[in-house]
Design brief:
CATH architecture of the largest domain: 3-Layer(aba) Sandwich
Number of helices: 10
Shape: elongated
CATH superfamily of the largest domain: Response regulator
Radius of gyration: 19 Å
Strand order of the largest sheet: 2-1-3-4-5
Order of helices and strands: EHEHEHHEHEHHHHH
Distance between the termini: 35 Å
Number of domains: 2
CATH topology of the largest domain: Rossmann fold
Strand content: 5-15%
Structural class: alpha/beta
CATH class of the largest domain: Alpha Beta
Largest sheet: 5 strands, parallel
C-alpha cells in the first residue's frame, strides 16, 4: 500500500487556509491535506502524523516550542517583514502574487521539503494523447519564465505567429490556459526546475 503524505494547515483565517489548501491539492493531488483553525484543534488530532505543517506566523509564535521540535516539517505563512524573526525556519510569503506563491511552494517542495514526501506523492508524468513537441516544450519553458510572445519569438528565432500557434497547441493539448497552471505542469513533469522560473 502506498503511503499518502499528510499535510496540516494551521491558520485561524479560514479564507487563507482554504486558498492554500486549494493550491496544495492542485500541486500535490496524492497528498491528504487537513486544515485546523486553531493549534488546539491540531493537538486534538494526531499532530505527529503530518509530513509538513503550514502554520500562520501568529500561531507559530504562540506555540514555538512545538514547531521548533518539528523545524524541518514547519513552513511558516508570513510576510517578508516577519521572515527576519524566523531565521532557520522555512517561510512562505503569503502576500506575493498567486504565480509567485505557486513558484515558492514548488521550490519548497522541490528543495527543502522534497525528502518529506515519498516518491509516489509526486504525481507521475501525465499520459497525454498528443505529447508536446520539442519546440512546444521550449516555448512552455519560456512561458514559465514570464516571457511574452515577442520575447519568446526573439529568443527562439521564430516568428510571432509561430509562437502564438505553439501556445495555442500547448493549451489545447494540456487543457491548461493560465500561466500558473502551465508552470505547475512544467515543473511537475520535469520540463523546468522550480528554481529556474
Amino acid at each position: 500500500m502506498k503511503h499518502v503524505p499528510e499535510i496540516a494547515i494551521v491558520d485561524a483565517n479560514t479564507l487563507s487556509a482554504f486558498g492554500l489548501q486549494t493550491i496544495l491539492e492542485e500541486l500535490l493531488p496524492m497528498a491528504m491535506i487537513r486544515s485546523f483553525n486553531s493549534f488546539e484543534a491540531l493537538i486534538d488530532d494526531t499532530p505527529d502524523m503530518y509530513a509538513h505543517y503550514f502554520v500562520s506566523a501568529q500561531l507559530y509564535m504562540e506555540h514555538t516550542s512545538f514547531f521548533l521540535q518539528r523545524k524541518k516539517k514547519a513552513i511558516v505563512m508570513a510576510g517578508e517583514s516577519q521572515s527576519i524573526q524566523l531565521s532557520g525556519v522555512s517561510v512562505l510569503n503569503v502576500y506575493q502574487p498567486k504565480e509567485m506563491l505557486v513558484k515558492s511552494i514548488l521550490k519548497l517542495h522541490q528543495h527543502a521539503h522534497h525528502k518529506g514526501f515519498p516518491p509516489e506523492a509526486v504525481p507521475p508524468r501525465r499520459v497525454i494523447e498528443h505529447e508536446l513537441s520539442p519546440r512546444e516544450i521550449e516555448v512552455l519553458a519560456l512561458i514559465t519564465k514570464g516571457l511574452i510572445n515577442k520575447e519568446i519569438a526573439d529568443k527562439l528565432n521564430i516568428s510571432l505567429t509561430t509562437v502564438i500557434t505553439h501556445r495555442k497547441n500547448i493549451t489545447e493539448k494540456l487543457g491548461i490556459k493560465s500561466v500558473s497552471g502551465l508552470t505547475i505542469y512544467a515543473v511537475m513533469n520535469g520540463y523546468v526546475e522550480a528554481d529556474r522560473i
